[in-house]
Protein: Methyltransferase domain-containing protein
Amino acid sequence: MVLTHRREQIDNDSSDGDSSLGDMDRASSSVSATSSVFAFVEEFGRTYHAYKEGEGKYFMPNDIPEQERLDLQHSIALRLFGSLALAPIKEPRRVLDIGTGTGIWAIEFATEHPESDVLGTDLSPIQPDYVPPNCHFEIDDVEDEWVFSTPFDFIHSRYMIGAIRDFSKTFASCYANLNPGGWIEFQDYYAEFQCVDGSMRGTALEKWNNLLVEGMAKMGKNGRAVAKFKRQMVEAGFVDVVETKFALPGNPWAKGKEEKILGTMQMTNILDGLHGMTVQLFVKMHGWSVEEVEVFLVDVRRDLKDRNIHFYYIMMSVYGRKPEY
Structure:
């Protein structure tokens, strides 16, 4: 897989130097914030969404530590991509943010685009109460039938490979709910780690990554789904589809000040989220005990911090336009 942008700069640096661091129509499929939605499921010392929790919709927690990690992940994406969106949008009137999480993308987009009405949807009601007047949030499942009364001009989604089973269906829903000329953009990880020199081979980190992707597959999720987004968008009817790949160091092993900053941020992101990413998948999908998970993660954390392991993530942005005819 050919990488662009930061890939050519991602050379090994074994030294320890340079370590700086309006109103929106509601969809009738969405759910109001009743007490049952706020009654989060408690498991493994974490909390998880209550809406459709029995259907295995999403395996990550939604508690305060995870919310703080999601906001860090947002900062990483902004630094890596350079903006909230790469699609060539111009003053979109209605904007939808699928899987909005803490709502940080929707809030910042609404602030930057006061002409837009921005709706963020998610399984968990973890968004703040005080937001720009042109920003709104609803509890909704993207994989339900979409019944929005008015189409959108821009639909955005990020980091949903762990939540969506069928992206082809989701892209079809996006297409049906966009105005002619409207844009869609999905940004996500390719969950299988890459390594420039084989230094990850045989490590606990490699084993963890393989088990993570396998566990997602057992839940019906494809950790490599982003590699199919471009083809699936074209098949859904989108035109002018553009796929852009970025390389994100997994820790500060790479040369260059910017690469070290990104690597440090991403290492912190994964260390902070490691328990949440692992415990439910490994216990429920692989049959591990909680104790086995905790012992294993000691070695994984050690490897994540090891700058002699030269691993990186492929991050991708894929956007396309609905034809005007």
Notes: The chain has eight helices and nine strands. Confidence is low (pLDDT under 50) at residues 1-35.
